[in-house]
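Hello Y.,

Per our agreement to keep a running log of every chain we model this quarter, I'm adding this entry. I've kept the format consistent with earlier entries: sequence first, then predicted structure.
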Amino acid sequence: MTAVTQYKRVLLKLSGEALMGEQDYGISPEVVKRVAEEIKSVVEMGTEVCLVVGAGNIFRGMSGVASGFDRTSADHMGMLATVMNSLAMQNALEQMGIDTRVQSAFPIASVCEPYIRRKAIRHMEKGRVVVFAAGTGNPFFTTDSAAALRAAEMGCDAILKGTQVDGVYNADPKLDPNAVKYDTLTYMDVLKNDLKVMDASAISLARENDIPILVFSIHEHDNFAKVLKGEGPHTKICN
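Predicted structure for the entry above:
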């Protein structure tokens, strides 16, 4: 199948909170199913998709540190939480007939594959969705950094950051009715103005590898596909 967008291969980055729905904690099966439908529509357009999911709906490393956990232990706990979210996404996608593989940055052989770059690329070439779990496999790095790293390793044409709002604003639009949305930004704009899109190391890595970042709302129906076609509301971060 030939892709109908300029993007042959993309990485979708989701926060763990995006999977909570109206809950205060955990995984909402309804939200996971709807996100899987968004991914399925893009796969059926002919675009190769890989995915990184955060862990904030289950355990956030920095919150653990604030509660007295050792940073390394807290980050390892967060990585394990991303594996749970990744398996949930795999289950939802495969119920829709989309072949999916979870690859973990640290080996959990009885649960999923270890991360092997060439194998992941081959999966996507065969039309499978690959979900990268356990972040980079190292403490002190966020899943944003993992997303930028995997996008670079996979040779992705873009990183799609699915958020709670439809782009990047100069203030929180849920708190400030006068917040202004940006249509385009440079990587340096994000870094200089400390815009809370992705952490600085992720932005820098995307900049070094010239991978555009498209920020959009994952909660709008069919928005993932629309943004890839240049139709949906979003903010584009590039050089």
